[in-house]
Design brief:
By secondary structure, the protein is mainly β. It has one helix and 22 strands. The strands form five sheets. It has a six-stranded antiparallel sheet, with no helix packed on it. A four-stranded antiparallel sheet has the order 4-5-6-7, with no helix packed on it. The longest helix has 4 residues. It is globular, with a radius of gyration of 17 Å.
Length: 274
Amino acid sequence: MLLVILSLLNSTIVSVPYATETAIPQPAPFLVELDSIDLTAIGLSDNCCGVAFDGTYLWVSDGECMLHLITLEGVLVSSFAQGGVSGWGLRDLCYDGSYIYGSASSRVDFYHTGTLEWLGSYYCDAVIPNRAQAYDGTYFYTGSFSENIYRVNWDGVPGSTATYTLWSTAVFNGGTYGAAWDAYNNCLWVSTASGDGMLFQIDADGFLISVYYTGLMAGGCSGGNVTGHPAPPWPLYKALWIMDNSSSPVLRAFELMPDIPLDRLTWGSIKVLF
C-alpha cells in the first residue's frame, strides 16, 4: 500500500507517493492554501492552541485561558475568559452544530455560540486532556500526543461520563494535537505537533488514507469556510483551518472541496454522504 506525502510549495501542497523513488510530483486536487490569518497581528498571544468554526466565526483557544471570536476576514470581534480552567486552558476545539467544545483535562466543556456562556461539561478519561476534538454528527473523536484516536460516545447529559473506544492507531508519528471531521470526503483529519509537519487523513473506519507533509508545526484544526468562495451548508466545509505554530500563530485554510453552486448543495443531493 502506498502512502502519500505532500510538500508545501508556493502555497500549494503537492503529492508524492511515499514508497516510490521515481514518482513525479502532481498537484493535489485539494489542500491548496486558500487563506491565512496572522493571529498576533490582530492582538492574540503567541500561545494559541485550537480552532473551530461555528458557521459564522472562527473560535480560537488561547494558552492564556482565553477564547477569541474572529471573522473569516480576520477581524477580532470578541475575547473572553475560559471558564474553570488553568494552565494552558482549552486545547483544540470543535463544533457540533449547536455548541463549541474544548478540554483542558478529562473534562470537556461546551459553550453557547450566541451568548458565549460556558454551559456545562462532560467527562472522558480516554486521554488527559482530551486535546484533539472533532465531531462527525454522532460521535466525538479525541487523542493527545500519541498514535491513538478514540471515538467518544456522550449521552448529551451535562456532568455525565462519556464512553469511548480505541478507534484508530493511524497517527504513526505520535503527534496528535488537532482533529476535524470532513463530511465531504468522509474522513478525519488529524494535525500534529511532532515537528515533522505531518497531516493525517483517516477513513471512516479508522484506517489511514494518506499522510501529507504541510511543513507546519500544527496545533488544532477545524473544518470551515473561506471568504470569496461559496459556503456549503453545515456539516460540509469548504476548507480545513489549521493552527500553524511554526513561529507566531497563523491560521491557514486549505481547500477540501471544489466550489459548487449552492443550488446544487441541497440536502437531497448530499444525503448520500451521511
